[in-house]
Design brief:
Layout lengths: L6 H5 L20 H32 L1 H18 L1 H10 L2 H25 L2 H29 L5 H30 L9 H21 L19 H14 L1 H31 L4 H26 L7 H21 L5 H33 L5 H29 L4 H22 L1 H16 E6 L10 E5 L6 H8 L4 E6 H4 L2 H9 L3 E3 L5 H16 L3 E3 L18 H6 L5 E8 L23 E7 L3 E2 L4 H18 L7 H11 L4 E5 L4 E3 H19 L6 E5 L4 H12 L3 E4 L6 H11 L3 E4 L1 H6 L7 E4 H6 L3 H12 L3 H7 L10 E6 L9 E5 H15 L6 E4 L6 H13 L3 E4 L6 H11 L3 E4 L1 H10 L10 E4 L6 H11 L4 E6 L4 E5 L4 E2 L4 E2 L9 E2 L3 E6 L13 E7 L5 E2 L3 H7 E2 L2 E10 L5 E6 L3 E4 L2 E4 H12 L11 E8 L3 E8 L6 H10 L13 E3 L13 H19 L1
Parallel strand pairs: 1-7, 2-5, 2-6, 3-4, 3-5, 9-18, 11-12, 11-13, 13-14, 17-18, 17-19, 19-20, 20-21, 35-36
Antiparallel strand pairs: 6-7, 6-8, 9-10, 15-16, 16-28, 21-22, 22-25, 23-24, 26-27, 27-30, 29-30, 30-31, 32-33, 34-35
Helix pairs in contact: 2-3, 2-6, 2-7, 2-8, 3-6, 3-14, 4-6, 4-14, 5-6, 5-8, 6-14, 7-8, 7-11, 7-13, 9-10, 9-14, 10-11, 10-13, 10-14, 10-15, 11-13, 12-13, 12-15, 16-17, 23-24, 24-25, 24-29, 31-32, 33-34, 34-35
Length: about 1200
């Protein structure tokens, strides 16, 4: 087998490549030719063993039991030694399919000759026929083994050998039983006369199997001969010697051949010894002995199959040590069971059956990787010769062990149990040698076994890994298991660049040496750092695979950290492919920093689902940012590919409630408080009423007109659990807009309350369903069914009963209409996957705990409120407290204090009100405040932090991005690690699974890092599209990227900075003038700290201008400073003159037009500006 220094060949086996050295996609394992080859092998082995075990019982009375066994084995084995050279010649010189057909034809003749020998009663003649069957098998074997690489693609070679092992040993067991049964028919009593009638069943069976195999052999595809010019080996001895020398010249091949020979020696010894063990040590009947033999060969068959499956798409030599260790253990167990067999016969029989089965299983694990490696490493034109030489070694060993067995049993009178002990002890040095020879492969496979038990690992993009040559892997770094997962996934040895303190740890140092890691430590001085990077570069030049975690450390937040520039130093002067890698699903495992600690937490689930994606090779990337962008894109793809395994929000909600039946999960300002069990029961009861009394079967969309409250939450949940799409209508907009939204969604019913319509009546032209009436329609039966479902029925059963398992990830969960700040509201279709992926990403970066309490002040018609303040807490076992008016600061403060609110989602406008009207103690437990919808002024953030001790984090998202797409989070600081999570003035980094970039608004081409352009977002959070407006969807969606219409940039650390909406820029004199920048400067000038008004003081817009194209207009509330002074102070800030509005462009208004969400009503502001300037123009004229 391969030594450690040949590991690159070892670990890349079985991977077909293209002209550039990349692995290519393989064909399926199964084909007609492969199936026919397996059937031919099955029938050949079955017939060989049937005939052999037909002959042995007939010969036993004449020759003696041990002699008959040994002589029969020797007669079958010698031809493999004598004919190894001709067999290799035939397999290389001619088409292997043709050789198989000729062998199957000869089998018919030899079997017929065998029955003539049986009738004659001549033992010499009979042994001669067995010799001929061995000769036939010797000629057949190289052609059969050499056929596999020709019929099966390389990634399936190990699996194909596993199946070949199964169809080799399974028919051997059947042949053992069948041969003994036919022998008992042919000769009922030892020494009795064999007649034609008694032998007829055997003749029909054996000849029928031979004919069937011959016919099936014609289904094997004929492939051209591997070496048509190979000369005839006139001197077989010389040719065999040359073949052995060829093996000797290739040390890995020689070791592999010796390993295969060792396997066949043990297999033949075990097969011979089982018969003696059953008869002598256990006193079993022949039928019981047959059962023991069957257990052995079934174990080998299963082991062979397992080895093929466990190898995956390559040859896994790490399985071989496990096989050897198992052989040692179970051989010793057989000895112990045999020695105590007479005192405990019943127990011993079952122990021996089990031990034989597991002995065979580990023998199969031992053999299949060796067979696969032999086929892979051998040159195709010499494969037949190599297989023949291996057969020579194997059957020389079998012949030797046959003679040795005769001596041990008949001459030295050693107990069969002790023979198994000697076999086990003899395997110990072999096992130790293999482990010492293949420490990397052994440990790698041990890791694989453990990971297989704990994780469900899926891979994608393996075809992008080059088979040979230097490769740099650049994965994200999310847990301590990242390296291990790559180690067991990548079919080539990897040299990891690892933090030096881990390498120097005495507990890990030995492992680091085995895997030849490259230690690195940034604070040990430039010379040490350069040496580490140079070592990595040299490894790449030598054609090795190097892996660097470019983030420089494990993420402490779940967000990807900026890639470090050291990676580019490694690549300097080297042209090797860079493979971006993304590991998905590990955040939340005990090996990640989820929850603020490593290891000391309970795993969320058994067999944690993990996916590893390998991107297309990057050649000479321009910067680390280019590499990081590709890794982030893989992250978005990983989330998208995992959607078939993720739960829908409704199912997440049910499971969350089931885990918190007695804990308060929902409350509101009306005094409502509900535990998880009560909430789920209420939702299920409401669902029953809706389906029975309100909703039609053909009614996919259901309107909801309710403020943020417990009732609104229950209604939304009931609608979703009924399989319908919720359409929360914006009651702060105009009636015309609401009618437009209802018509666009095709609503037939709107769920609302009388209290709601008492405050403001809307005539939408559709039927209102009042929740007060629905409560009255809930019957006692509804309550009982809902209670049993909530408290007793298992979650999975309940989900199936409700039909939630039939809901697909791409089904629409909600339609949320845009605010209409720049035009008519558009219905944004959000899928189940949009919401669930956003919830999971938010849970990842916010680290929501079951003890958290979310203040739900945002309305559910607002996407941020619907996803972050509604679905997020209800899906992750947190508590949520609703209040219908986000501007009612005093009530919100009281709610926060009463319920111990820890999380607040809002807008800067709302925060200003809380800052002025809420007391410090009311927000004392807040540890996360996230604002969006509008830009957060830095002074507001500072004032909020000073008063409440918590820094508000600014996020960014749109309705089309399912809420938050980017967010600032708390910095991580500890003695060894510092990771920045917040950068003031930005909206943070993209959420996990989300990618952001800036493009040129005109050319749509991506812009370099730090260059301002239009921000585009890609990820599983991006909407399905606009309802009934495919043309508008197409206008903003390109290749999965959503064009936000916001101007900004992505800086070198991955933070996104928004500079304004494209619609909030004016083109004046050919220059782009940003309204937001002017607003920020003006606000600093006009803001009065003594003013308790929490409203927005001013807004900048533009109107058409005949001279310059556009003219800036400033709408403002009454100011304490004169306009002239404001303009002078604005000019003093140093902004361009073109950005300074004229004095007559300042228009005083009573209120700045706002939307219900607190955002600027840009359409209303522009209309007000136009109206006021028209008035001014008319007054002047």
């Amino acid at each position: 087998m391969a030594p450690e220094n040949s590991a690159p060949e070892n670990m890349t086996v079985g991977l077909p490549i293209d002209q550039e050295g990349r692995v290519v996609e393989s064909e399926p394992l199964w084909s007609r030719s492969f199936a026919c080859l397996l059937l031919v092998q099955f029938l050949t082995i079955l017939n060989d063993h049937t005939f052999r075990w037909l002959v042995v019982p007939i010969a036993k009375p004449i020759l003696g039991q041990a002699a008959a066994l040994s002589l029969g084995l020797a007669a079958f084995t010698v031809p493999f030694i004598l004919l190894s050279s001709p067999a290799g010649y035939l397999a290389d010189r001619f088409s292997k399919a043709w050789v198989i057909r000729v062998c199957k034809t000869a089998e018919i003749l030899i079997m017929a000759l065998g029955f003539v020998a049986i009738f004659s009663g001549n033992m010499t003649f009979l042994i001669g026929v067995i010799f001929l069957t061995g000769a036939l098998a010797a000629l057949f074997s190289p052609a059969k083994s050499g056929c596999l690489p020709e019929l099966v693609d390389a990634p399936h070679l190990s699996k194909a050998n596993g199946f070949m092992g199964l169809v080799t040993v399974a028919p051997a067991a059947l042949g053992f039983l069948l041969g003994n049964i036919l022998a008992s028919y042919a000769q009922p009593e030892p020494g009795s006369t064999i007649t034609t009638a008694s032998l007829l069943p055997a003749i029909a069976t054996v000849m029928g199997l031979a004919f069937l195999g011959w016919m099936i052999s014609f289904g094997i595809r004929v492939v051209a001969s591997a070496d048509p010019d190979r000369p005839v080996p006139w001197n077989p001895i010389t040719e065999t010697w040359q073949s052995l020398q060829k093996l000797k010249a290739d040390t890995p091949l020689l070791r592999t051949s010796l390993g295969i020979a060792f396997f066949w020696m043990l297999a033949s010894l075990a097969q011979l010894n089982v018969d003696q063990l059953g008869a002598k040590d256990l006193g079993l009947s022949q039928e019981q002995i047959g059962f023991l033999g069957m257990m052995l060969v079934l174990g080998v068959g299963l082991g062979s199959l397992l080895a093929g499956i466990w190898s995956g798409g390559h040859v896994e030599l790490g399985i071989v040590p496990l096989g050897a260790i198992g052989i040692v253990f179970w051989s010793i167990m057989l000895c112990l069971a045999g020695l105590f067999g007479h005192s405990l016969p019943g127990t011993a029989f079952f122990v021996i059956c089990g031990s034989l089965f597991f002995l065979g299983l580990h023998a199969g694990l031992f053999d299949v990787p060796l067979e696969s490696y032999l086929q892979h490493r051998s040159e195709p034109r010499h494969l037949g010769q190599v297989v023949a030489a291996t057969n020579f070694l194997a059957f020389s060993g079998i012949l030797m062990i046959s003679g040795l067995y005769y001596l041990m049993i008949d001459v030295w009178h050693i107990s069969p149990s002790v023979v198994f002990l000697l076999a086990g002890l003899g395997t110990i040095p072999v096992a130790v040698y293999i482990i010492l020879l293949l420490p990397t492969a052994t440990i790698r496979f041990a890791f694989w076994l453990v990971i297989k038990l704990l994780y469900k690992v899926r891979t994608a993009g393996m075809e992008n890994l080059p088979r040979t040559g230097g490769v740099l892997l650049t994965p994200n770094h999310i847990s301590f298991l990242d390296g291990v997962l790559l180690l067991i996934t990548v079919p080539r040895p990897i040299r990891f660049i690892i933090f030096a303190d881990y390498v120097n740890n005495p507990k890990l140092n030995w492992l680091a040496k085995i895997f030849d890691v490259i230690p690195i430590k940034a604070d040990s001085g430039p010379k040490s750092l350069i040496l580490s990077l140079r070592t990595a570069s040299d490894a790449l030049r030598d054609g090795q695979v190097v892996c660097i975690f470019p983030e420089g450390g494990l993420t402490r937040s779940g967000q990807m950290q900026p890639f470090q520039a050291g990676m580019m130093r490694i690549l300097k002067g080297i042209d090797v492919p860079v493979i971006p890698v993304y590991l998905h699903g590990l955040w939340g495992s005990i090996f990640s920093y989820h929850g603020g600690k490593f290891f000391w937490k309970w795993p969320k689930k058994w067999r944690y689902p993990v996916s590893i994606l390998f991107g297309k090779p990057l050649h000479q990337p321009a910067s680390v940012h280019e590499v990081q962008n590709h890794v982030q894109l893989l992250g978005a793809l990983a989330v998208e590919q995992a959607k078939s395994q993720e739960l829908t929000p409704a199912r997440m909600f049910i499971r969350s409630c089931k885990k918190s039946l007695r804990s308060v999960r929902l409350a509101d300002s009306s005094g409502m408080e509900m535990t998880g069990g009560k909430l789920l029961a209420s939702v299920l009861a409401m669902r029953r009423v809706l389906i029975r009394d309100v909703l039609g079967v053909d009614e996919p969309y259901v309107g909801i007109l309710l403020p943020a409250s417990g009732a609104s939450a229950i209604v939304n949940l009931a609608v979703t659990l009924s399989g319908r799409t919720a359409v929360n209508l914006n009651f702060t907009t105009t009636e015309a807009d609401m009618r437009h939204c209802a018509k666009d969604a095709g609503l037939r019913h709107v769920l609302t309350s009388r209290k709601m319509l008492e405050k403001k009546m809307f005539d939408l032209g559709i039927e209102y369903i009042f929740i007060e009436d629905l409560k009255e329609k809930v019957t006692n039966f509804d309550r009982v069914v809902a209670g049993i479902s909530a408290y007793v029925t298992p979650a999975l059963v309940l989900e199936r009963m409700l039909g939630l398992t039939r809901i697909r990830p791409n089904d629409i969960i909600a339609i949320i209409f845009t605010s209409g700040s720049t035009g008519e509201p558009k219905g944004v279709m959000l899928s189940q996957h949009n919401v669930s992926s956003t919830v999971e990403a938010a849970d990842q970066v916010f680290s929501i705990k079951s003890t958290d309490c979310v203040l739900g002040v945002l309305p559910l018609f607002h996407c941020f409120g619907y996803v972050a303040a509604f679905w997020l807490p209800l899906c992750v076992q947190a508590k949520v407290v609703f209040h219908f008016n986000p501007l009612d600061a005093r009530t919100i403060g009281e709610l926060a204090q009463k319920h111990g609110a820890t999380i607040l989602f809002g807008t800067p406008t709302f925060l200003r009100g809380y800052l002025k009207r809420c007391e410090k103690e009311q927000f004392s437990k807040l540890d996360l405040v996230v604002v969006g919808a509008e830009k957060m002024p830095l002074d507001l953030a500072e004032q909020f932090r000073e008063k409440f001790g918590i820094q508000p984090s600014e996020g960014y998202g749109t309705t089309e991005t399912s809420g938050p797409a980017c967010v600032n989070i708390a910095d991580h600081r500890c003695q060894m690690v510092s990771q920045t999570g917040t950068k003031l003035g930005t909206v943070g980094r993209p959420m996990p699974g989300v990618v952001a970039r800036a493009i040129d608004p005109d050319t749509k081409q991506p812009l370099p890092v730090g260059t301002e352009g239009m921000i585009c977002i890609k990820g599983s959070n991006i909407m399905v599209g606009y309802l009934n407006h495919p043309e508008k969807t197409a206008a903003v969606m390109h290749d999965g990227w959503y064009e936000t219409g916001d101007m900004g940039l992505v800086d070198e650390e991955g933070f996104v900075r928004i500079t304004g909406r494209l619609s909030r820029f004016s083109k004046i004199g050919g220059e782009m003038v940003p309204h937001l920048r002017i607003e920020e400067n003006l606000l600093r000038i006009v803001e009065d700290p003594t003013n308790t008004d929490a409203g927005i003081l001013l807004a900048v817009t533009s109107i058409p201008d005949p001279k310059k194209g556009e003219r800036l207009i400033v709408l403002h509330k009454p100011c304490t400073k004169p306009i002239r002074q404001i303009i002078d102070e604005l000019a003093a800030t140093g902004i361009p003159t073109l950005w300074i509005p004229s004095q007559d462009s300042f228009i005083e208004v009573a209120e700045i037009p706002l939307l219900g969400t607190g955002k600027l009503d840009l359409k209303g502001i522009k209309q007000t500006a136009l109206a006021e300037t028209d008035k001014s123009s008319n007054a002047k004229s």
